[in-house]
Here is the input.
Amino acid sequence: MAATTLSAPVAVVAAAIVLLIAAQAAAAAAEGEDSCGVGMVPCPSGSGCVRADKICDGVFDCEDGSDDGYDFCLSFDCGSIGKTWCREGYQCYPRSGYCDLNYDCTDGSDEEPERCYSIYQSKDLCAPKGLVKCANDVGYCISPQDVCDSIPQCSDGWDELNCLNHTCRPGQLQCPLTGYCTQGRLCDGKPDCWSDKGVEDEDPAFCTGHVCPEGWRKCGDGLQCVEAGKWCDGAVNCLDGSDEGAVCAPPPPPPPPATEGSGGGSGAESGSSGSGAESGSGGGSGAESGSGGGSTAESGSGSSSGAASGSGGSSGVSNNSSTPVVLSKEEVARLKKLAQAKKAAAVAAKKQKMEAKRAAAEEKGKQQEARNAVIEAKVKSKADKEAAVAEKKRKQEEKKAAIEAKKKQQEEKAAAIAAKKKKEAEKKAAIEAKKKQQAEKAAAIAEKKRKQAEKAAAIEVKKKKQAEKAAAIAAKKNAATK
Here is the structure.
């Protein structure tokens, strides 16, 4: 009796809300918007209003939570708002939400794998959301950015397989050995592809045969590409320093003007008809030549072509020049200064190259640290995502457990009420039985008394008859005596 009293008001309220939803459109047209407004209904408790489609959806919308009360939703008709029931029977969800990869029911009955597996296989539910479906994880979607990023997202690692056949997104670099997609360029001196195979994009064996893209030039060691605009810009970009080396040196200065001697020579301090620097008389053309037709430095007279040759046609070194070679102090100072400048330039170039290599090594270390940080961030993001999913599942399990506990509590309460009712009925039956027993006993006593009274009356009648008989005999005796 008590259980019926508990659920009857709830069922009445649920039925009233269903009728209100069904008649709302007509009521709004006839009487205008009611107190809650179009599309709204009163909360089951009567305090506040709620959207009709929000009733029994697993989320408390009324301030007192009565729109998702357990007893109320067990009696509510989900079909009245165009929805269907979850398995537990106290929550509604849209019919279109069945097997759509979105959990609507807190008990998960709208996305059960054994019921949805064939639907997941027949439909690509990931593509409409801009996601990619894992080949072997039915019903599991991942972001396109997670494909071939070196971090497996699918349970079997499908998203990191056959990446050499995968096309990376525009602006991304495809690693040469693994096919992973990342940011950066091949063979630019900056490591971008890190894997168990090492630094793929800067591997010498690969970069030796790599062709630089348009607008880029290969460094002298053949292992690095540098933008053409960065060559000879005063900053070392090639790890071997070749972008700022001899390729950038200005053309050599013109030779100093010659001092004419006797003859028609054109070299500095030349003799007659000599054309080499500091030549003697004759037709020599080499530096510091003597007379004759020699063409090499410090030649003597004659037509020799060897260095420091003498007269005649022999070639080779000779000290037969009759005119000793004497350099001016200015020329000696100039040559000495030039040698010192070359030495200083070589030292500076070597120092600059060492600095460039050290800076490149530091930059490489920084980039490696940055890459490691990115990988750690991705791993952490994945772990956070898994933790969030686990936390969501845990909360759903807790909510489900709470609902089960509440349901069990209500069942125990109903059982207790039924047990109490049964005890009261048994007690009442016992009292009735005792009363009946007492009534039967009283009736038996009364019957016994009645029989005793009848017996006593019979005895009295018998005694009376005996007395009358005795009196008659006595009278008869008295009469006989007289």
